[in-house]
Design brief:
Layout lengths: L1 H17 L3 H12 L4 H8 L5 H40 L18 H15 L3 E2 L5 E3 H4 L31 E3 L5 H10 L3 E10 L11 E11 L4 H16 L5 E5 L5 E10 L16 E10 L1 H6 L8 E8 H9 L12 H4 L3
Parallel strand pairs: 1-4
Antiparallel strand pairs: 2-3, 4-5, 5-9, 6-7, 7-8, 8-9
Helix pairs in contact: 1-2, 1-4, 2-4
The structure holds phenylalanine (PHE).
């Protein structure tokens, strides 16, 4: 038996040596190691041997099989490598050609500015929050001290999206301002409060270079004990100075908004001429920035806050307008036309 094995191994090796193709090598492999190959047959016949014989022949047989398997595999690999090299040499393959790149998008200037605004106010201890864009008349107007049929409703032309009047909440509208979130936050968190609300607002307006039916605002609200407009001035000057990276001054003028008393218009010193007066600020030295004021007693009441104990201020500015001022963008429609060439400039 041992001799038979030895001879089989030698036969296989010399046949393998003579094999001159992949096909021939595979054929010989089958003859010896295949399902009915010589070695396989011997292994299969082992069951008829005595235990004694098994102990001797078994390991020998496996060793022969392993040796042959290794040799066949080596030779097959040589043929395969040659075939691959031949295949590759047929076509020209330039490994130095740059790969095709996917066009990348770009963060919109509005989003960039919004992130900066959020970062600065967060640093000053403000929470960033939001509210629904589809809002009820109750939150958008009534609770903000703008009663039905009051002329102040006409200050903001409104998209009504529901005819039916609900007894508690009125009709549904696209919010015309971020101010309704003041009430929602008071109801949800109570006093004290310190938050900003960046978000989209909608007005039923004809579109031109400086008006769009959708734009972005940032609402601010601070409610605590012993709060005055001095705090507002300080916070705003600090915010603008950090945003623009140079000292910015803030000016208050009287203004009217039903949900604040007293109400203010806030300006900041012109970034270009630093207050001396130039074309950009129409020679006034100031840029109109936003509406603000001390939160009206009725608004605190609507939000469930005790106005004897707490007071505070609110502001609202146009993020869209701020982006236009910052980069000198002269047409609001550029911000929504989706042209990547525009976005990539910022
Ligand atoms: N909501 C006002 C507007 O859209 C801005 C504002 C907010 C004014 C808060 C005062 C206080 O015009």
């Amino acid at each position: 038996m041992q001799e038979t094995l030895k001879r089989l191994e030698q036969d296989a090796m010399s046949a393998l040596e003579k094999a001159d193709s992949l096909e021939r090598t595979r054929e010989i492999e089958g003859e010896y190691l295949g399902r009915n190959g010589h070695i396989t047959m011997i292994l299969r016949g082992m069951k008829d041997l005595s235990d004694e014989e098994k102990r001797v022949v078994g390991p020998l047989c496996s060793a022969t099989r392993t040796t042959l398997e290794e040799h066949f595999a080596k030779k097959i690999k040589i043929f395969e490598d040659k075939a691959l090299a031949k295949e590759l040499s047929k076509e020209f393959f330039d490994t130095t050609i740059p790969s095709s790149t996917r066009p990348l998008g770009h963060i919109h200037p509005l989003s960039q500015l919004q992130e900066e605004v959020e970062r600065i106010f967060s640093q000053m201890g403000f929470t960033v929050t939001d509210g629904p864009e589809i809002e009820s008349e109750h939150y958008n107007f009534e609770s903000l001290n703008i009663p039905k049929d009051h002329p102040a409703r006409d200050m903001q032309d409104t998209f009504f999206i529901q005819e039916k009047d609900d007894a508690d909440h009125g009709r549904m509208v696209l919010r015309t301002q971020t101010s309704p979130v003041q009430i929602r936050a008071m109801e949800k968190y109570g006093a004290p409060l310190r938050l900003i609300v960046p978000g989209r607002v909608f007005r039923f307006e004809a579109t031109d270079a400086s008006h769009d039916s959708m734009f972005y605002q940032v609402e601010g609200l601070l409610i605590d004990k012993d709060i005055s407009l001095a705090h507002l001035k300080g916070v705003l000057a600090e915010f603008l100075t950090r945003l623009f990276g140079k000292p910015v001054k803030v000016r208050f003028r009287p203004g009217y908004f039903p949900f604040v008393e007293p109400g203010l218009e806030v300006d900041f010193s012109c970034l270009l001429c630093e207050g001396k007066g130039c074309r950009v600020c129409k020679h006034s030295g100031w840029m109109e920035f936003m509406g603000a004021g001390m939160v009206h007693e009725n608004v605190l009441k609507a939000g469930g806050i005790d106005s004897k104990e707490y007071q505070g201020w609110a502001f609202g500015f146009g993020l869209t307008r701020l982006v236009m001022m910052r980069y000198g963008i002269d047409d609001i429609r550029l911000l929504t036309n989706g042209d990547l060439r525009f976005n990539k400039q910022f």
